[in-house]
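Session log. Operator J.P. requested a structure for one protein chain; no other inputs attached. Running the standard single-chain path with token output.
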Amino acid sequence: MIPIRKFYTILLLFLMIYMINLSLKADDGYRLWLKYDKIENEAIRESYKKLIQKTFLIGNSSVMQVVENELSMALHGLLGQPLLHNNDLTQNTLIIALENDLPSAILDREKYATSLTGDNFSDQGFVIRTIRKSAVTYTVITARGESGLLYGVFHFIRLLQTCQDIDNLNIKSSPKIKHRVLNHWDNLDRTVERGYSGFSLWDWQKLPDYIHSYYIDYARANASVGINGTVLNNVNASPQILTPLYLKKVAALADVFRPYGIKVYLSIRFSAPIDIGGLKRADPLDSEVRQWWADKAAEIYELIPNFGGFLVKANSEGQPGPQDYGRTHADGANMLAEALKPHGGVVMWRAFVYDNKVKEDRAKQAYNEFVLLDGQFNDNVLVQVKNGPIDFQPREPFHPLFGATPKTSLMMEFQITQEYLGFSTHLVYLGTLFKEVLDADTYVRDMGSTVAKVIDGSLHGHSISGIAGVANTGTDRNWTGHIFAQANWYAYGRLAWDHTLTAEEIARDWIKMTLSRDDDIVNPILEMMMESRENTVNYMTPLGLHHIMGWDHHYGPAPWIKDKPRDDWTSVYYHRANEEGIGFDRTETGSNAVSLYAKPVRQKFSSLETCPDEYLLWFHHLDWTYVMRSGNTLWDELCYRYYDGAERVTRMKEAWNDLQDKIDDEIYNHVKQMMIIHEKEAIWWRNACVLYFQTFSGLPIPTDLVRPDKSLEYYMNLSFPFAPK
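Structure written below.
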């Protein structure tokens, strides 16, 4: 066996050679936001080098080796300076050590230790502080736990990448959410459900013996933004993932990820005791079934000591679950929680459930099932709730479950992959969507009871908290299909760590780390990103419309979809357009889904006087001639929104074209071609939807707008049998 230090030394040499080779080539996006190209501004570069003349790292664990390797690559790339070790502390020095290992010669230990105390400061948190003693400046990165040191080092590197002032640092940061997880909807045959960037990263056929180098880069990228967990497989899970053959493969990935502070989790099929265990039932109250899961958990932890736990999709869209036996979601979750409890694992039980046998507004069904179970879940269960009550739409109001179950720990489920937002061909920055939901006020206690405070546990005093993002990664060289889709992975991680950050500051950092540090380039790209999601909402689903995309594959517009096996798998179920008007009435005169919200929210959405235009047709069915706040009729406003969204995509394309010769050629051409697709598809959405809804309104398209050049029949007859699903 190779000694751990020798192994990481070899790894470091490999990575440094690899990074040097990459820097000599055109940029294909593989490095994500971990681009350590030399800082162009010589004055800034030299000021950094003056403050980091030497480095003193204390510790020799696998995590500290990762810290050393990353810092070595960063200093070499950004400053052109090798990592020079020093333990005499006579020069300006970067010191990296656990709190208890900090050199007492330069620190007043009692005074300094107070910075790492506090109820909300975890072992994953870190402190970065400038300390001056005599004529020497020490930049200290410290933490209680080694993962905190790792996160602190990545934060420090980010400061260098974005050219921040590091002369007088006093940073204290601790994650607001405990479990910050990616959900991979990857199948064992390497296809990816709702994946738009190639095949699955996990090469199951070659595991456990062959470890791709990109597994390490995946771990680096996640650790750099504070993501500390990954669910490796699809929520529509194959039971084979729990067999010894695959558990050994999972263990190999867990070994790679462990030094980066990342735990692996598995999606499980509730019927696994039948499928692979030889039992006749999967009843969660059956003693044999309970024992089977306890034994399976013990088997997993024997292979993977830091295994995170299970993600479960049950009794949803045909998946098996406890209701097959007359049991509740709490019965099913608690059985698994008890099996994991001795090992420190958690259950993430999805609340995405609906039943076509129940003739109820789909927006109400998850609430109706789970609100009655409040207080019945074990303390190592997190109920995972999608951000909105339907299904990752371009815009939805926040899910009414947030705040409605004060005795139950809820975790957020965002979708990073762009299932309903143009796949990975449309430039849509989702940081603004994530923030819109996190900052939404539930009013379940009083003003300020935001969704973010629900999921971080602070509103109801929960010690366990979580957030999940459905991943958008694949084997495409740039990881996410579209360079700008990387920003959504990045934004999710940053907000999972600290939901008080703004979407704008996150986007600005990403641009500087990924594309350019030149403000003349950063600012126009930032403007594009910040307006991109609103543009998309407008050319797809303005004014609260939702779920009007293509059947099954969800590609492109199809508001005409009807007569499918389930009403709530059709478009007409949601927009309810007819000769009188359009929109889903969720007020007291309709499904009354608005009643699921706290009174101030309910009153705001129920009243036409106060309901925001963005949610108008989500909660109200209105006449085509209803007069909007803008003074336009509803029909005209709908048309103007559709046209404005598409027009702004054209402006985005032109703004990108203006950056030619200012951006790396490969990245520039990649985005340029994507923007051509984006513009065409935005116009397609606009034309198809306006023409379809016009068949009900019977009103002309406003004369100042260009009439679509193709007929409605043309758009309705388009077919995409091999669109990715």
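Operator note: The chain has three domains: 4-173, 179-514, 538-584+621-716.
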